[in-house]
Amino acid sequence: MVQPKRWSGVTGGGSLGRKSLTLLLRYVNVTAVYVALALVVPFYMLFARRGFLAIYRYFRRQWHFSPLKSLCKTYVNHFVFGQCMLDRFAIYAGQRRRFTFSLIGNEVFMRLLDDPKGFIVAGAHVGNFEISGYTLRQDKKRINTMVFGGESRDMMAQKLEMFGKNNISLLSAERDMSHIFALNRALLEGEIVCMTCDRNVGSAKSVTCRFLNGEAEIPQGAFALAAHFDVPVITVFVMKEASTRYNVYVSALSADAASRQEKIRQLAVAYANTLEAVVRRYPEQWFNFYNFWG
Asked: Does 130 share its domain with 267?
């Protein structure tokens, strides 16, 4: 079963809007912009009806909250999502030092850096995964990060400029699946492949997993790569703890199956379990704005 693609993967706001926001955040503390965001969120919820309903149902069905509590939680979800987006632009604009990051389990990442084999970093659309590039700085292995192929040129150029300083290259996910060759090369050369693993992009293959009081389809792409090249998989979740403070959770996924297909299944289930544990701690930071559970 493949989830319908009701998300675009493109950073919104238009080229002029993004440039204006970046310019603003060069001179204005990002926390001051949160005030304006709080006023804008209700209008966004009103006009972005599909995303609003998906998150409202998430709180009603997966958390079994009352209608009123689900509505309030949906507002908080949209507000925190907006904060995460503003934080990204603030970092692009030079406000990196305003933020603090606490790394939990970073020894797992550091240990793999000394291994000649490559490995996979699995993230998700929770918290602020994109800014993990600022927290996992190192110069031992190149990080090859998958990004959506439909992103605008100016946004891609901005990301390339920022991430290039941190030994990170961007791989665009293309419809013809040509990016698979770049992923294979990276792992063969002992580099790091970094991708979000909770949405199907191109491939229809997935593993059905128990997840947050329901069943969800977890794409098997990253885990198939790991099984094929016999490389480790770790999860990294960057969760907003306070206005300018993030907790970064790093953990390893384990699989001991002999067969390739069973190893893929075990990794997908381990990923779903690890993701669920994080989402249970930060329920308002679930940012899949479509009907994830089908």
From this structure: yes
